[in-house]
TrEMBL record:
Transmembrane segments: 6-35
Alphabetically ordered keywords of this record: Membrane, Transmembrane, Transmembrane helix
UniProt-listed Gene3D superfamilies: P-loop containing nucleotide triphosphate hydrolases
Residue stretches making up the Phage terminase large subunit N-terminal domain: 31-84
Originating organism: marine sediment metagenome
Protein name: Phage terminase large subunit N-terminal domain-containing protein
Length: 133
């Protein structure tokens, strides 16, 4: 189902017999309606054209430097802002940018002598989200 503002756009397209529509957007969530309607569910009557900053012949040196800085310092931002991919980092994430994912095995309890495992919770009663560790 299309959002209400989009229904008005489609109505205008049909009223004036326009046979094409252009959508430009920055993909934030994979649930975005444009992404789902035209990219996820590919249609034979649709042309998807992705463009990137490095294809822009008029891009300034300052903008190129910004892109390079993001690529080095914040790869997730670079992926979203400069390459148009889904934004995977969220300001609501408690440990945003401060964690790493590693493989590990948990030893059997009988093997534990001096090690202890800890866990904790922040229930998010303030303006912060709930987190369990």
């Amino acid at each position: 189902m299309l959002p209400l503002e989009t229904v008005f756009v489609w109505a205008a397209i049909f009223i004036y017999s326009i046979t094409f529509a252009f959508y430009t957007y920055a993909l934030v969530f994979v649930s975005d309606w444009v992404y789902n309607r035209f990219v996820t569910n590919k249609r034979a009557d649709t042309l998807i054209k992705r463009t990137y900053y490095y294809n822009n012949p008029w891009i300034s040196k300052v903008m190129l430097q910004e892109a390079e800085d993001d690529q080095i310092n914040d790869p997730e931002r670079y992926s979203h802002v400069w390459l148009g991919n889904v934004w995977t980092k969220n300001d609501a994430q408690v440990f945003k940018g401060k964690y790493e994912i590693l493989d590990f095995s948990t030893p059997a309890i009988s093997e534990l002598k001096y090690e202890r495992f800890f866990y904790g919770a922040d229930w998010g009663f303030a303006r912060d989200p709930t987190v369990l560790i």
